[in-house]
Specification:
173 residues; five-stranded antiparallel beta sheet; 4 helices; globular
């Protein structure tokens, strides 16, 4: 298992191009979580990723509990089991980028471990892409091209399958 990178507030300030005083203030306000080790403060990669997710208002981010079922590990959120690959245990946050999810009209036989049937609740389309909101037991946003939206004739109320690989799921403590 690879050890997680830890940053001092000064190192993080350099990485984010901020002053060290700004980073200390962000920690004090609770914007960024930090480890207090003796009199030292360290910020892990996971804590930095959580901060970025909170400011980006990331989609498809879920609070979950990790369970094992045979050789497989799952993050369970609202009764929905998401197949994951991690050494972490207990309560975590999991996320799947909308761009990493494939929509299928039927169950897809593939190497992807996550195949979830859901109902289209909303569609938002602009000149670049379409964002399809799917209820698979938890709300899930999927980004597809407008061409795919048109060719698949996707409408609110349609039943579709969200398909994504285990490795596409980011797991953070």
């Amino acid at each position: 298992m690879q050890e997680e990178m830890l940053y001092t507030p000064e190192e993080l300030a350099g990485k984010l191009k901020l002053s060290k005083y700004t980073v200390y203030e962000m920690i004090k306000r609770g914007d960024i979580q930090a480890h207090h080790i003796g009199r030292s403060i360290r910020i892990s990669e996971s804590q930095l990723e959580l901060y970025f997710m909170s400011i980006r208002k990331s989609e498809n981010v879920y609070d979950a509990e990790i369970i094992s079922d045979g050789d497989e590990k799952y993050a369970v959120t609202n009764g929905v089991k998401i197949c994951i690959s991690t050494d972490l245990e207990g309560k975590v946050k999991v996320s799947v980028r909308p761009e990493d999810i494939i929509l299928s009209a039927g169950p897809l036989i593939s190497s992807a471990r996550n195949v979830m049937k859901g109902r289209v609740t909303d569609i938002v389309s602009d000149s670049k892409c379409a964002r399809v909101m799917l209820d698979v037991g938890v709300p899930m946003t999927v980004s597809i091209t407008n061409r795919s939206l048109k060719e698949m004739d996707i409408k609110a109320g349609d039943d579709l399958y969200a398909v994504f690989k285990t490795m596409a799921v980011k797991v953070i403590k």
